């Protein structure tokens, strides 16, 4: 599964999906203020999981209290058979979670699961465990900036790969800042749950091998109207799947920060 995950990303890049080769000179950059988080949390959650609402609330709390930690929700679809189809879920998120587990070698896939910087995982509803894992995590080491013009999304990446790493993938994420869902069936039937920083799309922009490099893709290919935040992740990749996240940038494209 992890190998197929890497191949899908590589094939998308080679096929030229969303990627623009060359310099774009049309359109001045209108959004050039970027937050550069120092740590990243991915919460794998599900509307069909009765254990997830406490983790969803913790994610909201983390988003509000600390801009240096980028908290992202990755709703999964593998609990849909329990009676409620998650309205925010994506099979890409489920595949990503399984790929993480395979790379770690523990095959531990569950909800709510938080993965810190693409490496350590903890139960997402256990606040003390989550904060301890954040304390243990090293700050991101790669410089990343993000700009959006009328024509293009541009990510600039600089620095060096970690020792032993050969390549990293530069990802673009569309993120919905808030969503409130009334759940009609399943384990959370009758509940209204708020979700924050929900990942709606995860697109590889290119492969980075170190040094200073700029990655671009056409804004016309993106449906940003309902998604307030844009994210760049730089993540070490290998034949065994996605690994350590080494860089990130975030922008509220409607507000310019």
Report on the structure:
The chain is an alpha+beta fold. The protein contains four helices and twelve strands. It has helices at residues 2-14, 53-65, 91-104, 127-136; strands spanning 29-31, 39-45, 69-75, 113-116, 120-123, 143-149, 152-158, 168-182, 192-208, 213-218, 229-238, 241-252. Strands 1-6-7-10 form a four-stranded antiparallel β-sheet, with no helix packed on it. Strands 3-2-4-5 form a four-stranded mixed β-sheet.
Describe what is shown at a glance.
With 257 residues, this protein is of the alpha+beta class. Helices cover 19% and strands 39% of the residues.
List keywords for this structure.
257 residues; 4-stranded antiparallel β-sheet; 4-stranded mixed β-sheet; 4 helices
Rg calc: 18 Å
Beta-strand residue percentage:
35-45%
Helical content band: 10-25%
Distance between the termini: 36 Å
Low-confidence stretches: 4-32
Blueprint (SSEs and pairs):
Blueprint: H1 2-14, E1 29-31, E2 39-45, H2 53-65, E3 69-75, H3 91-104, E4 113-116, E5 120-123, H4 127-136, E6 143-149, E7 152-158, E8 168-182, E9 192-208, E10 213-218, E11 229-238, E12 241-252
Parallel strand pairs: 2-3
Antiparallel strand pairs: 1-6, 2-4, 4-5, 6-7, 7-10, 8-9, 8-11, 11-12
């Amino acid at each position: 599964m992890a190998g197929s995950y890497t191949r899908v990303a590589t094939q998308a890049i080679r096929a030229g999906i969303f990627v623009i080769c060359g310099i774009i000179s049309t359109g001045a950059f209108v959004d050039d203020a970027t937050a550069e988080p120092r740590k990243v949390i991915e919460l794998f959650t599900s509307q069909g999981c009765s254990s997830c609402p406490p983790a969803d609330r913790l994610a909201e709390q983390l988003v509000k209290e600390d801009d240096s930690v980028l908290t992202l929700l990755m709703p999964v679809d593998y609990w849909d058979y329990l009676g409620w189809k998650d309205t925010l879920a994506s099979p890409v998120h489920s595949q990503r979670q399984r790929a993480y587990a395979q790379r770690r070698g523990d095959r531990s896939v569950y909800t709510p699961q938080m993965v810190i910087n693409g490496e350590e995982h903890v139960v997402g509803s256990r606040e003390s465990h989550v904060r301890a894992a954040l304390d243990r995590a090293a700050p991101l080491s790669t410089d990343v900036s993000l700009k959006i013009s009328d024509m293009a999304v541009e990510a600039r990446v600089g620095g060096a790969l970690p020792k032993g790493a050969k390549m990293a993938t530069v990802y673009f994420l569309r993120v919905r800042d808030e969503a409130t869902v009334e759940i009609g069936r399943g384990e959370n039937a009758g509940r209204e749950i708020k979700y924050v920083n929900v990942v709606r799309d995860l697109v590889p922009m290119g492969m980075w091998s170190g040094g200073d490099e700029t990655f671009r893709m056409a804004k016309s290919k993106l449906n940003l109207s309902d998604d307030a935040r844009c994210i760049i992740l730089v993540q070490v990749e290998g034949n065994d799947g996605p690994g350590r996240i080494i860089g990130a940038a975030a922008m509220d494209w409607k507000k310019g920060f």
